[in-house]
Structure formats: C-alpha cells, structure tokens
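Notes from hallway chat w/ T.B., transcribed later so I don't forget. T.B. wanted the structure written out for a chain they're using in a teaching module, and asked if we could keep both sequence and structure tokens in one place. Agreed to drop them here.
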Amino acid sequence: MILKTGDKVKVIAGKDKGKEGKITKVLRNDNKVIVEGINMIKKHMKPNGGAAGSIVEMEAPIHASNVMVIDPKTKKVTRIGHTTDKKGKNVRCTKKSNTVLD
C-alpha cells in the first residue's frame, strides 16, 4: 500500500465523497485507512467500572481505493509513483507535479 500515516487525502467515493482529511491510521492487512473526520459512526459503549454508558462518535475505516492523495503543490488529487533520490533511495512522488512525498 502506498498510503502512509499523515498523508492528506480526498475521498473520491462513498457517502463522504469530496471531503478531505489526514490519514491517522493505516490498516495494511485489510487495505483500509482511517481518515480524521471521515466515515463517522456512533458506537454505543456499555458502562464499565465507574464510567457510565454513552454513545461515542468515532471514525470507521474506509477502503484505500476510495481515497486519493492531494498534491501539495497543485492542491488537486493525484496518483503516486516511485522514483529514486540523489542518494539512491526509493521515494514516493506525485504524478502531477513530480513532488517528493516524505
């Protein structure tokens, strides 16, 4: 998977289509990502110990194919490619502006 934690992405499919956010967690085995403020669900928490039961809003995972990385230069969605830097290390780069992603 070429998506990493901290990437700024835009949702291209689903109920939150068009929204933008930052990836907070990558679930590599399931090919899913958790994006802050996207795909919000309500989870009913049982009371345990001294804490009372409540309804908590949290982000649910979204499939990685439903998000695209935002190019830092052009601020538009783009695909990601790979290239080598001057030291010979493989790095990710954007296809639109050829900007190296960290």
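Follow-up for T.B.: The chain has a mean pLDDT of 95. Might be a good example for the class.
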